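User: Quick sanity check before I run a bigger batch. Here is a single chain. Can you write out its predicted 3D structure?
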Amino acid sequence: MGATIREATTDDALSVAALLGELGYRSSPEQAAERLARIDADSSTWAIVAEVDSELAGLGALHVQNLVERDEPGCEVAGLVVGQRFRRRGIGEILMQALEDEARRRGGRVMVLNTAHRRADAHAFYEALGYEHTGRRYAKELT
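Assistant: Done. Predicted structure follows.
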């Protein structure tokens, strides 16, 4: 596929905002830059991008945390998106492999992720990579 994987930087904010928008997470380039700066300053989170011909084609993020129920760190795919015109070209798999490799380097033995009920294509993608549906996720807006 010819995709290059590298760490995300605040210079990627415009493209990252557009990618997030494709998933329904409206973000301004300023918001994306602020988030990327926070991630860069936080050693527990790692954000990467996939470039194809100098264009941002995808974004992935890993979050690692200490868990009360396991001896090894908990690893979570904190975000994954491939731009619509780059989908079905192997970029998602390349990003996931990079996230899994980094999780292993950080001592993780299990990776978890969340995906919305409405994202049937994402469910099939993750299942094809060996992920299994193991539970439910609950959310609450804190005010």
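The radius of gyration is 15 Å.

User: Great, the batch can go ahead then.
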